[in-house]
Amino acid sequence: MSTVDLLQEIHHLKFACPDAIERDLLNAWRTYRVSDITRQLQSESGREIYAEAIVFEPNDEPKSFFPKSLAELVVEHLATSFDGGPIPEGLTCEQQRDFGALLDVELPILKLLDVDNTTFWRRVTKTKTKTLVEFLKFDRDNSTHWKNLGVALKVAETIEHETPEYWFEGDLEDILEKSQPFVEKLAISQLQPFNQIEPEENYEEYKIYNPTPDLCSHGSLVVLKHLVNLTSISLAFGLGDATKGYERRFFIFSLEDVKNLVKAMVHFQHLRHFKLSRSRMEPDKLKTLLDQLSTMNIETLEFPYCYLGTDTGMLLAKYISKCSEMLKNLNLSGNFLDGQQIENFGYGINVYQGMLEKLDLSHNPIGEAGVLTLGGAIKNMQQIRELNVTGCEIGEQGAFRVVQLLGFHHPLRILHMNCTPLGRAGGKKLIEVLKENWLVEEVNCKFCDLKPSHEKRIQSILRRNKKFHLARQNSNNASTSSGGDLPTSSSSSNEKSCSMPQ
Fold first, then answer.
1. Contact present, 98 and 75 (Cβ < 8 Å)
2. How many Cβ atoms are within 10 Å of 214's Cβ, its own excluded?
3. CA-to-CA distance for 447 and 461, rounded, in angstroms?
4. What angle do CA 262, 266, 270 make, to 5 degrees?
5. Alpha carbons 430 and 238: distance in angstroms, whole number
6. What span, in angstroms and rounded, lies between the C-alpha atoms of 234 and 276?
7. Is 143 helix (H, G, I), strand (E, B) or coil?
């Protein structure tokens, strides 16, 4: 009879575990318990003692439990005593996963850079991402590189928490230098400003409640120059969590901050996505930043909630008129751009030589005049495939103009116009336009005062268009695989070898 068959024939020896348990016996069992893998070795074929058949049952636990094997105890010890470097050699795939599941995600980043363990870096990402939804997006993407993502999150956390006075005196610069091979996307959600006033001795500390921007400088962003592999950067000077206490200085930054950032950006030759949000952007700072961005191959540019208003429309126009033709996505949501600023901005779109596919103007008071000037700027051009004018205070007449834009501007495929009062006339016009335009993929018009019957009709037409797109896509794929020409539409103009499953 084989060892395995013999073991199956043995009844478990059960020991009650009162408070005064035979601890020597229990400790010996934990230490010398043989794993299933070990039991299958040829050297174990003649074994007569089976410690793994013993089950300890505590009085307060009706179910049996199995103390850990020696191998498990060793992996636990290696994880809890880890102090930098690569993961220990000789671990099986299962043990590597166990090690990654036990290793402390709060260890300093400099001790973790040599750790190649998918399980561990996935845990780091789950712990450090701001929301669970954000993590789930990464988790569903089979191309997610967990180590790069985890290192970038740890680096961003270090920058956010480091006191600005010690940026060049502590470990921050060393961290950025050694992390640069892994950091491609960096998102800093809140930068800490310098203390405004150092209280003199024997005097109470006090604060300025309405500081000027020159009193609100932050740590020198020149330090970011070491991250030469950056393809995407997102910065926010303003508070991300209002529960931390509001102070006006948290939303203000100085011209010196922008100049220091520009000095670092000179080294970002691979940068394609730039975002600055929740920050008070005056025209002089915007100009300084746009002058540098115009020399780079930026594909996505975002300035949401940056207090853009007077005198910024022309600056944006100058930028888009001379920037790289690679710009595809421009997000200006949540600012104070009115009709005049949109008119100025429209001049830049009118001469842009590239293909601006997505424009987000949501939550700007552009008004009906802004809709008219924007429509005039893109008329008879291939710009703007997706437009967002949600909450733009355009009224019923402005909403009607947006619907007309959907009718005559054929490149427009996706339209967001939530919280816009279309009313009965606008709803009828939207249905009329959609019936004729089979290319529209999506129209979001929630809270637009539409009749229920109009809402149903709009959704029905959009479903028709979706089927049309799917059919055309399948036809194009079939033609491509067979080598034929595409048809034209009548309506168109160390754990690598045993890593976790993604």
1. yes
2. 10
3. 19
4. 120
5. 39
6. 6
7. coil
Evaluate whether 269 touches 240 at the Cβ level (below 8 Å). Answer: no
pLDDT at 231: 97
Residue type, 127: T
Q: Residue 384 and residue 359: Cα distance in Å, rounded?
A: 6
SS (H, E, C) 412-431: CCEEECCCCCCHHHHHHHHH
For 147-171, the pLDDT digits (tens) are 999 999 999 999 998 888 888 877 8
What distance in Å separates the CA atoms of residue 148 and residue 19, rounded to the nearest whole number? 49
Closest CA to 286 of 259, 321, 312, 264: 312
* CA–CA gap between residue 90 and residue 74 (Å, rounded): 12
Q: 252 has which bridge partners? A: none
- 486, 480 in Cβ contact below 8 A? yes
Of 293-307, 355-369, 417-431, where does mean pLDDT reach its minimum?
Answer: 417-431
Q: Which residue has the tokens 């930026």?
A: 298
Three-state DSSP state, 219? coil
Tell me which H or E stretch contains 233: strand 232-236
In contact, 229 and 183? CB cutoff 8 Å: yes
Identify the weakest region by mean pLDDT among 38-42, 432-436, 446-450: 38-42
- The secondary structure of 348-360, three-state, reads HHHHCCCCCCEEE
- Cβ count near 252 (within 10 Å): 24
DSSP state of 274: E
DSSP code for 314: H
- Give the DSSP H/E element, type plus range, for residue 13: strand 13-17
- Strands 414-416, 386-388: parallel, antiparallel or unpaired by DSSP? parallel
**What is the token pair recorded at 288?**
């300084």
Residue 499 pLDDT > 90, yes or no?
Answer: no
Q: How many CB atoms lie within 10 A of CB 1?
A: 8
Confidence at residue 345, expressed as pLDDT on a 0 to 100 scale = 94
Beta-carbon count within 10 A of 393 CB: 16
Q: Tell me the pLDDT tens digit for each residue of 242-263.
A: 665 667 777 789 999 999 999 9
Are 370 and 342 contacting, i.e. CB atoms less than 8 angstroms apart?
yes
User: Considering the entire predicted model, what is its pTM?
Assistant: 0.80
The single residue listed with the structure tokens 């073991």 is 7
Residues making up the chain, counted from first to last? 502
Sequence letter at residue 301? L
